[in-house]
């Protein structure tokens, strides 16, 4: 009689049974680990925790609960978190919510200024909801990019691992046999053996060099010249550069929509957005646009001077200015970019996966052919 493994069943969030495919469970667990929002090198709160906090708080205030009670309720499950406790203590002591966030030093100037405007205009629930939505979109983008890239990354690692194993362990075994073979080796075989010797001799040096390069990237990631050149290189990479550009443009549009709908002055939004987005081409364009706007140029013409913004973006921005609905048009542009990002990341995954598998097959096949050609020559000489 067949047995049923009860471990393949699990309750979902709606109290229904669902079947878990254990074959893919390890991959789903890996995706969930990578999707965790960990900010090891950032002094600020992670976007996931901020989004959750603002969402809970906005819902409570919208239902008529005062700000102090709302903070107490939304932080009740986070009692061990000193960040939220310090915010609550300051509000209880009579400080405004925005100042309490600022003093915690765990929230950005973007968060502080948005909430301060919400307090002054009496639109705090709407601002909190918009902040929550803004961070949710950032999390969705991150999860989307991770889900698309993690499988190709695993295949690439497997491919290089397989090639390294063959060059470091399999090829030397054949090379020992060929040394006893009195004859000239085929050019392909000799090339593979030379490559194997090089990998065996310099592999650890290559790992050390790669580690040094990663360390340099971390150290110089905030250097202006480095950011300028690295962004220029990345944006020229086929398909990848276009996706990176659209990700930052979508974040820029979402940020502008949130701040402008909260009645933040246009020039002030530029300073806040530059702190939030942190993408060199965007920062330069906004710095120059500030000067152009002060000289009387409209927004669409000021931004249109920079190649990072496409013609469709500028046309929609011009229309938004003409009808005085910039926040709505920034939202529309952001939604369009998000759809394009989704489409292009799917294309990247579809193209990369078979290409990597083909590369692995060609490399392994090449090594095997190079090793077996001399073996056939040896066998013909023997007979």
What is the helix fraction of residues, given as a range? over 70%
The shape, in one word, is elongated
Structural class per helix/strand content? mainly alpha
- Encode the helix/strand succession as letters: EEHHHHHHHHHHHHHHH
Major beta sheet, specifics? 2 strands, antiparallel
Q: What's the rounded overall pLDDT mean?
A: 80
Residue ranges: pLDDT <50 for 5 or more in a row? 1-24, 26-41
Counted by DSSP, the helix tally is: 15
Q: Report, as a whole number of angstroms, the end-to-end distance.
A: 58 Å
**Into how many domains do the coordinates divide?**
2
Number of strands: 2
Would you kindly provide a written description of the structure presented here, covering whatever features stand out?
Helix 4 (82-92) packs antiparallel against helix 5 and helix 10 packs across helix 11. Strands 1-2 form a two-stranded antiparallel sheet. It has helices at residues 22-35, 47-62, 67-74, 82-92, 97-104, 109-121, 124-179, 187-220, 224-235, 240-261, 266-277, 280-294, 299-304, 311-322, 326-382, and strands at residues 9-11, 17-19. It is an all-alpha fold and 383 residues long. It folds into two domains: 47-107, no CATH class; 134-383, no CATH class. It is built from 15 helices and two strands.
Short description:
With 383 residues, this protein is mostly helical. The chain has helices at residues 22-35, 47-62, 67-74, 82-92, 97-104, 109-121, 124-179, 187-220, 224-235, 240-261, 266-277, 280-294, 299-304, 311-322, 326-382; strands at residues 9-11, 17-19. It has two domains: 47-107, no CATH class; 134-383, no CATH class.
């Amino acid at each position: 009689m067949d047995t049923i493994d009860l471990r393949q069943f699990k309750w979902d969030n709606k109290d229904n049974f669902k079947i878990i495919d254990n074959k893919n469970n390890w991959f789903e667990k890996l995706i969930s680990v990578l999707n965790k929002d960990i900010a090891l090198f950032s002094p600020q709160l992670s976007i996931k925790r901020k989004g959750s906090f603002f969402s809970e708080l906005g819902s409570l205030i919208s239902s008529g609960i005062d700000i102090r009670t709302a903070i107490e309720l939304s932080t009740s499950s986070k009692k061990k978190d000193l960040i939220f406790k310090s915010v609550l203590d300051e509000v209880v002591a009579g400080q405004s919510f925005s100042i309490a966030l600022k003093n915690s030093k765990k929230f950005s100037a973007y968060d502080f200024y948005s909430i301060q405007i919400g307090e002054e205009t009496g639109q705090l629930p709407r601002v909190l909801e918009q902040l929550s939505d803004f961070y949710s979109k950032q999390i969705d983008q991150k999860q989307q990019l991770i889900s698309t890239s993690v499988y190709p990354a695993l295949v690439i690692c497997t491919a290089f691992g397989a090639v390294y194993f063959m060059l470091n362990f399999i090829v030397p075994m054949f090379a020992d046999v060929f040394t006893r073979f009195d004859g000239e080796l085929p050019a392909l075989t000799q090339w593979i053996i030379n490559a194997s010797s090089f990998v065996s001799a310099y592999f650890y040096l290559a790992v050390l060099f790669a580690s040094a390069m990663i360390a340099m990237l971390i150290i110089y990631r905030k250097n202006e010249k480095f950011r300028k050149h690295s962004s220029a290189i990345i944006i020229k990479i086929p398909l990848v550069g276009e996706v990176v550009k659209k990700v930052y443009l979508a974040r820029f549009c979402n940020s502008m929509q949130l701040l402008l709908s909260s009645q933040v002055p246009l020039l002030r939004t530029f300073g806040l957005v530059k702190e939030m987005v942190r993408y060199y081409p965007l920062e330069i364009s906004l710095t120059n646009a500030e000067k152009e706007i002060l000289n009387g140029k409209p927004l669409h013409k000021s931004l249109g001077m920079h190649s990072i913004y496409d013609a469709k973006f500028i046309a929609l921005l011009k229309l938004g200015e003409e009808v005085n609905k910039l926040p709505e048009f920034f939202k529309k542009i952001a939604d369009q970019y998000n759809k394009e990002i989704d489409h292009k990341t799917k294309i990247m995954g579809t193209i990369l996966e078979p290409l990597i598998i083909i590369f692995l097959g060609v490399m392994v096949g090449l090594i095997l052919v190079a090793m077996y050609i001399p073996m056939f020559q040896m066998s013909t000489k023997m007979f």
